[in-house]
Amino acid sequence: MGVSESAGGSATERLVGCRAERLAGRWSARFIVGTNVAYAAVMVAGFLSLGNLTDPLPDPYLAVAEVLILLLAPAMVVLMAAVHACAPAHLRMFGLIAFGWMLVAGGLTMTVHVVELVVARRVEPGAVSGFARLFDFEWPSLLYAVDVVAWDLLLGLSLLFGAAVFTGHRYRAVRRGLLLSAVLCLAGLVGPATDVIAWRGIGILGYVAVFPITCVGLSRAFAPPTKATEYDALSCPLDAEADRS
Q1: What's the half-sphere exposure (Cβ side, CA atoms, 13 Å) at 183?
Q2: Mean pLDDT of 95-100
Q3: pLDDT tens, position by position, 164-201
Q4: For the segment 129-170, what is each residue's pLDDT rounded down to a tens digit?
Q5: Average pLDDT in the 64-74 region?
Q6: How many structural domains comprise the chain?
Q7: Which one is predicted more confidently, 54 or 27?
Q8: How many CB atoms sit inside 10 A of residue 112's CB?
Q9: What backbone phi and psi angles, to 5 degrees, belong to 58?
């Protein structure tokens, strides 16, 4: 075993993929971090304006938060696509499963928040029977339940399988971060299951705090190799050739 392998893990543990795939993973991870910081700032400002944490978030804070989610969800799908593309061959199945769950999660939450932005705000509550059960973003309502499925169940599964791609000492922090955020997201399902919705805070901690922090490490993991020998020779022959020249 060479010095480079002992320090950073064996060649079969390293991420592969071409420069474009790595850059997509790197910049989507960074975008997720920045968007989550903006989301957290909007939430804090909104609840400070209310003076409590129990009332629903008012507009314009809620509308801005929903727009940020519409920006965040595609970046999360791109991130898991990059995880799949850059996974070592023997771990690519786990990356594909992670991408699949993330794709469904992103589609569901984008649908929910588009409906909230362009439909629910234009419908008079008295004009639709059971309006609160359908459109209100409070538990229990249909849209809220769908969003719980997206962010707690499907995101949790995606992060769980995504963690399996990152093996070896080099990616230990990323693997642990993905596992922790996955467990917290899935644990957040306890709230709806027991009708004690405050327990959803466990899941929120997973995807609002732990996952973005993990994305900082993910952005570093996707850094393009400085040596052509670190590229996957089959998937990136042009990149490797360009580096050799």
Answers
A1: 7
A2: 98
A3: 999 989 899 999 999 999 999 999 999 999 988 889 99
A4: 665 577 777 788 889 999 999 999 999 999 999 999 999 898
A5: 96
A6: 1
A7: 27
A8: 25
A9: -85, 165
- Nearest CA to 83 out of 104, 70, 108, 100 is that of 100
Q: Which of 140, 139, 137, 182 is nearest to 157 (CA)?
A: 182
pLDDT tier for residue 127 given thresholds of 50, 70 and 90 = low
Asked if residue 230 belongs to a domain, the reply is no
Amino acid 38: pLDDT = 96
Q: How far is CA 244 from CA 16, 170, 183, in A?
A: 17, 25, 43
Over 170-208, what HEC string results? HHHHHHHHHHHHHHHHHHCCHHHHHCCHHHHHHHHHHHH
As a whole number of angstroms, the distance between CA 108 and CA 35 comes to 19
Residues 232, 235, 239, 240: is their CA dihedral positive or negative? positive
- Average pLDDT along the chain: 85
Q: Does some domain include residue 209?
A: yes
Name the residue range of residue 140's domain: 17-223
Which CB contacts under 8 angstroms, 24+ apart, belong to 104-108?
104/150, 104/154, 105/73, 105/76, 105/150, 105/151, 105/154, 105/155, 105/158, 106/73, 106/74, 106/76, 106/77, 106/150, 107/73, 108/146, 108/147, 108/149, 108/150, 108/154
Cβ of 245: how many Cβ atoms within 10 Å?
6
| Residue at 9 is within a domain | no
Q: Which of 71, 69, 58 is nearest to 109 (CA)?
A: 69
Within a domain: 3:
no
Question: Please, which residues have CB within 8 angstroms of residue 75's CB and are 6 or more apart in sequence?
Answer: 28, 31, 32, 35
